[in-house]
Structures are given as structure tokens and as C-alpha cells.
Sequence to fold (140 residues):
Amino acid sequence: MTTTPSQVAKGDRLPESSVSITRTDLVRYAGASGDFNPIHHSEAFAREVGLPDVIAHGMLTMALATRLVTDWVGDPGRIIEHGVRFTRPVVVPDDGEGATVELSGKVADVAEDGTAKVNITAKCAEQGVLGGAYAVVRIS
Fold:
């Protein structure tokens, strides 16, 4: 069952989200963030350093995971704490379709102080790309 923040209980699930990332998205993110590392745009360089292909910026993947929670709570200012570990890169092929990141969240705990901890799952090609992803949010 998916819930809204006004009726939160431990075990509740957030609405799932699916986000496509294309090479064009990587160019836009590089321009906005200033991160022009060639692993995010050069296939030759990415392969030279041992990657299978160009990969998405880790911070972009983290931002998408965070957006799952901010969309749910309705206000980015309600996030009190957030953390992730990068466990696997999101490989973005140059095929016009890119990569799809599947996002889901589950309320792990609701505290008496009006906060909730949400565990976030991010997968690409059916494999987890973030580990220990979570956000603590004000729900009241």
C-alpha cells in the first residue's frame, strides 16, 4: 500500500518511480554541476579505466533517489537527513533510450518527534546501484 505523509506507519511504501537517463541528460547534468569527468561522456575513456561504458554521475543517481522522497513529502525542506553508498554504477548506453533507474521507498520507522525514516531502493538493470540509501523526513 502506498501512503501520503499525513498517514504514515512503519512498513508503508512510497509510490514507485521509474526514471530514464540518457546521454543528453548526462551532458545537462555535467553543465549544471560542473562535473566534466570523461567517464560520464567518453566511451573510450570509460573503457580505458575499466568501466563497461559511460556511467551516470553518482550525485545524479542520488538526486533521483532523493526526489522520490521529496515528491512524496511535497517539500524538500522536510528532509532532515539523507545518506547513500554508491554500490554499482548506472551504465548509460548511447542508444537513444539510455538507462532506467527504478526507485522505491519504504518507511522503516516513525518516531514520536514527528519524523520518519524512509529506506530507498534504486535499481538499474535489476541490480542495486545504491546501498543503505535513506532519508529522515518531518511528517508532521
Notes: The two ends are 20 Å apart (CA to CA). Strands lie at 17-21, 79-86, 99-110, 115-124, 127-128, 130-138. The chain has a mean pLDDT of 95.
